[in-house]
Amino acid sequence: MNDYTITTEPGIITRYTLRYKGKQVFSGPDRAAVEAMRDQSKAARAYCEDDFCVAYVEAIYFTEAGEDSEIDPDAPLSASARESIREDCETFQRDHAALLAQAYAVDGYTPAQAGHDYWLTRNGHGAGFWDRGLGAVGEALSRAARDAGSIDVYENDNGELEA
Length: 163
Hints:
The protein has helices at 31-44, 51-64, 79-95, 97-104, 111-122, 136-147; strands at 3-9, 12-20, 23-28, 154-155, 161-162. By secondary structure, it is an alpha+beta fold. The chain has one domain. The chain is globular and about 45 Å long.
């Protein structure tokens, strides 16, 4: 059985759990991660040129920061991480433009969802392109994301995140 559970506090998602075939495969984020996601989304608008990149940054904080993590949800991305993320998102979108165009033709699928799915898929978070109902296009995008390799996130000596 595949399902998910969302827990909210007055209008704010504070946690969710994803189950695949009855087994929990991913859980998160806590309230601190949600707040960091929202704050970093605003900050990302300064260096990301599109919704794909902004959502990618949101996904980093969604999966890596929070109360249950060693990553401070208030830690900003370093200048080198921001540049690397921006370039990585541009490259993925350029190299896979035809597949992404086919995905965006599916009702309701957006560049923001694709940016989020890129982070989730490449890092093996149990959700992503492959489970969006995109069929062969989702599978091809999943292969491309996995081929891009996973990214480790850590806090540097200056209290900034490196990715």
